């Protein structure tokens, strides 16, 4: 079974950019990669350089598909609908590809905690299970900021949950909460990527505050990434320009 990754963290720590660069590096290694945008504020297409013309409609907003597969109209809470709808064709049908990475925008339910008991959640749950359990593709999931997705148990079968933090204390508090909830649903492998590390002092601070975590890597403040974000383009359009810090993380994911 291919590598399945979920990437989470407090909003604004750079998890979408990291998800995109890791997906590109994994694809460049010869893997077939699905990058899943499960954040309600969808930015993974831009980070991957995937065209949004025509606009990408998240799976969660495909009302006709949801009604067809579940036998119930979206927005119906309770009632009768298929709990395990057929979704096997959706990843290839609704994804867009660039440089070996297929982007699938799922969206997310506008509910906290465990999500809603509704046709939309049935489709999303079945889709994530299909991608993680039954597809022999590498999956990189850019999850919504915070911890709400953990309660929906969509990441239960992932190989590793990567929590992105920065030197700020709030992101580190969020990391502990995310890990606690992840372990509650059976995710045993949780790692940290520290982003926007300005130097040895920042690194030492993060290592001290999160000493009981596994660290996958440390990424410095990067002007190219900041410029790309401002300009609405993907950073490091040329793959060989991606810094070695990212490559070390990708190599470790592949070898472990």
Features:
8-stranded mixed β-sheet; alpha/beta; globular; single chain; 256 residues
Q: What does it look like?
A:
The protein has helices spanning 15-28, 44-48, 63-70, 90-94, 119-134, 148-151, 169-184, 200-209, 223-231, 244-255, and strands at residues 4-8, 33-38, 96-98, 101-105, 138-143, 160-165, 190-197, 214-220. The protein is an alpha/beta fold and 256 residues long. Strands 3-4-2-5-1-6-7-8 form an 8-stranded mixed β-sheet, with helices on both faces. The model has no long low-confidence stretch (mean pLDDT 89).
Overall 3D form: globular
Report strand %.
15-25%
Termini distance? 13 Å
Biggest β-sheet description: 8 strands, mixed
Helix count? Answer: 10
The main sheet orders its strands as: 3-4-2-5-1-6-7-8
Helix content: 25-40%
User: Which sequence of SSEs, written as H and E, runs from N to C?
Assistant: EHEHHHEEHEHEHEHEHH
Give unreliable regions as ranges. Answer: none
Report mean pLDDT, rounded to a whole number. 89
Radius of gyration of CA atoms, rounded to a whole number: 18 Å
